[in-house]
């Protein structure tokens, strides 16, 4: 069962990263990065990848619950 959640997390993560790759491909990222100061780029990336952090946090809790139930 744990492998299923790992696969779900990986699939959602790759889809999410693919979405951002599509949105920011090529010239868009170059023009965006050249007009923003470094701290704003960091804030943007932190906001963009925040949902992935919460996804893996929830999946970690689900895995822990499954392991505790099997004991």
From TrEMBL:
This is Candidate membrane protein. The chain crosses the membrane at residues 5-24, 44-62. It comes from Ramlibacter tataouinensis (strain ATCC BAA-407 / DSM 14655 / LMG 21543 / TTB310). Keywords: Membrane, Transmembrane, Transmembrane helix.
């Amino acid at each position: 069962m744990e492998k299923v959640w790992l696969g779900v997390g990986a699939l959602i993560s790759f889809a999410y990263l693919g979405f951002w790759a599509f949105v920011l491909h090529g010239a868009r990222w170059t023009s965006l990065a050249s007009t923003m100061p470094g701290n704003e780029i960091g804030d943007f990336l932190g906001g963009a990848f925040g949902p992935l952090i919460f996804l893996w946090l929830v999946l970690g809790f689900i895995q822990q619950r499954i392991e505790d139930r099997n004991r």
